[in-house]
Amino acid sequence: MESAADNHSTDSNSEADNNMTRPISSSSSSSAVQRALLLIQSDDSDSKLQAAREIRRLTKTSQRCRRQLSEAVKPLVSMLRVRVDSPESQPQHEAALLALLNLAVKDEKNKISIVEAGALEPIISFLKSQDLNLQEYATASLLTLSASTVNKPIITASGAIPLLVQVLKHGSPQARADAVMALSNLSTHPNNLHVILETKPIPSIVNLLKNCKKSSKTAEKCSALIESLVGFEEGRIALTSEEGGVLAVVEVLENGSLQSREHAVGALLTMCQSDRCKYREPILREGVIPGLLELTVQGTPKSQSKAQMLLQLLRESPYPRSELQPDTLENIVCNIISQIDGEEQSGKAKKMLAEMVQVSMEQSLRHLQQRALVCTPTEKLPIASCTSEVSSK
């Protein structure tokens, strides 16, 4: 699922208003920019509305137009303050929000200017709107604005986090996806994780994770947020208390993108390291072994390392064996498999181990073949020369 910031901003592949998708030539953009700036300063509400829609169109694909139209930020923010009970409020609010959203995407200065102009107060009020479109656009705007390091503490201080969690619980599918991404952005600022934890977001994050495509950006942000939140005991308890919570993380570990899988294994490793006795069984019970085995071969370097560490902790004894019984990955996995209940899960783990050994053998064979090719010179070389070249690889 793509974010509303993608669907309604410069990165969009399609535009809701088809008549606004025509390309902007370099010769006409300058005059169009000047005309939009003139109209947005007008006292006439219809002229302002027309200008906002034109600014949205102009900034859809042009970084240059976003810079040239930065002067429009303040009048657009003033449009957000039109009273809700006013007849023209809905189109004014939506047009201004979408124009500001396009101005902010990929432009750090505009992101900061929008917040400095006082946009947060009306945007946050729209999070509580019964109008799902307005709520969706407001959530997308916060997602974009929260990408700025300067804005993060200001957004937090404005009380946005509890409202974003409410959107995460009750919003439209698009708004929920954008809300979790905004929360993930805000979570990187010091102390924000405590604020997020206080809103008890994990049931809603897990629910979203269960229902989204595991290879999606949404799943990646859910996994990243969970990995951060399980660094606290409240987060670990919330995840294991939520029905299907650990399973949802295991499913990402098996089927997610490389980055999502890295977050998922990181979350499970954090739990097991915090209290192995408490969290080992809940993790094993969800059939994590096959996914971990695959990660040790096919994951990112971080995923491989974390998967191996987690496999160590999941075995009956987390401590290395004696020198007479080498602590190989195969021994570790065999030790775990012997403790697994259920033929299906045990059989799957054994099959994965066999496949892993096969992959390892194939990789070793390819390595030997590559070494042999190095030792097959076009001209006759002394044996010592060939040996020297192989040893340097």
From TrEMBL:
Alphabetically ordered keywords of this record: Repeat, Ubl conjugation pathway
Any single Pfam family the record assigns to this protein: ARM_PUB
InterPro entries referenced in this protein's UniProt entry, alphabetically: ARM-like (IPR011989), ARM-type_fold (IPR016024), ARM_PUB (IPR058678), Armadillo (IPR000225)
Domain of life per record: Eukaryota
Coiled coil: none
Keyword tRNA processing: no
Start-end of Polar residues biased regions: 1-24
PANTHER family per UniProt: ARM REPEAT SUPERFAMILY PROTEIN, U BOX DOMAIN-CONTAINING
Record's protein name: U-box domain-containing protein
